[in-house]
Amino acid sequence: MTALLPNASIPGSTTSLLVTTDCPFNLTAAAQAGQASSHSLPPLCTVCCCGVLNRTLAVAFMVSLAFAIVIGNVVTLTVFVQTRQSRTPQGYLKVSLAIADMMVGVLVVPFSVYTEISLMVTSTPPIWYQASVTSPTLGGLVSPWQPCMLIGPVFAGCTFVSISTIFLMTLERSVAILWPLHKDALVTRRRTLLLILLSWAASFLLALAPLMFSSNFTLEYNECSRMCNYTPLLFGGRLPPDANILLLFPAFDFTLLGGTLAVNIVSFTSIRRYTQRRKLLSEGSLSDGGGGGGGCSHRPSFSDIKAAKTIGILTFAFTASFSPIAVFVLGNVVGYTWCNFSFFAFWILTGNSCCNVIIYSVRDHRFRKGVTLLFQREQSPPHGEKT
Predict the structure, then answer these.
(1) What pTM does this model have?
(2) What is residue 367's three-state secondary structure?
């Protein structure tokens, strides 16, 4: 997700000093301080990425992460598309989550790789990196199109889609655990697809909210996080009065994550009670009031319980990867500037996009079986008759 940059409130005199160093904090602040000069901005760097070796390691990490995200989620999509048993409401939600993760690996990470390589091999940043450049033909300052106007909302929107999809997956499993007899009537494919479309629309509208409801923000590549972030435009070295609009992002995230954790607690409490009851039934110390097989139909199946536990692990993994970003945003609001920490916070969150396929491989035996059949089908020679 995007966050309020900690360096946006740097006074103008301090910003002018930072522009002359090797480590300026903010492109917009630096450009506003040096618009009168026609010199190009120096290459930007932080402690974690200064030097050729550190930059090379950072680029190698980004490339490896992009390959892991794309390959893992392509396998996930292929398995769920080609496996008939996966065409369920839970399967559609997993497909939505995989598409959001794959967009991060296809658009967001490669753009950071391209920008970092450009900064390494050229003496000056790309033209779009410089907020305003002097054009003799057009006369005066010209602001080139900023690619971050596309990449930034994509990353923020996909993050919100992931959070909302995990929340919907948790609700779907809670229905299967708490009301197993009504699961098929309450959770239908049509309702699930409608909720998926609504979550995508709401997530990307929220990602564009700072641009839609205010003219005091822009999107640019940040040298600290190595990603496209929202940046407030400074007025006399001060933040705009509506800078708090960016707090919509953590408010949305905390609300959905809190709701997801609450629903998981209710589901796991029901699972624990069911497990204890089944243990007492097996020991003969408790009579089955449902009348033999009739009582069993009111209990969640083993596959539903295991799926709920898998989604609980997904929730825990996403919460753990999102926590550094939450700390970073709260630190920004208080006034701390954590440039190097922002790099690790944003890329830990990005790395979560390749965790889901690992969790599926460990927890879901149907997914493992689908992957095995997929690779066996690709390796087997063509036959005259279908198997």
Answers:
(1) 0.77
(2) helix
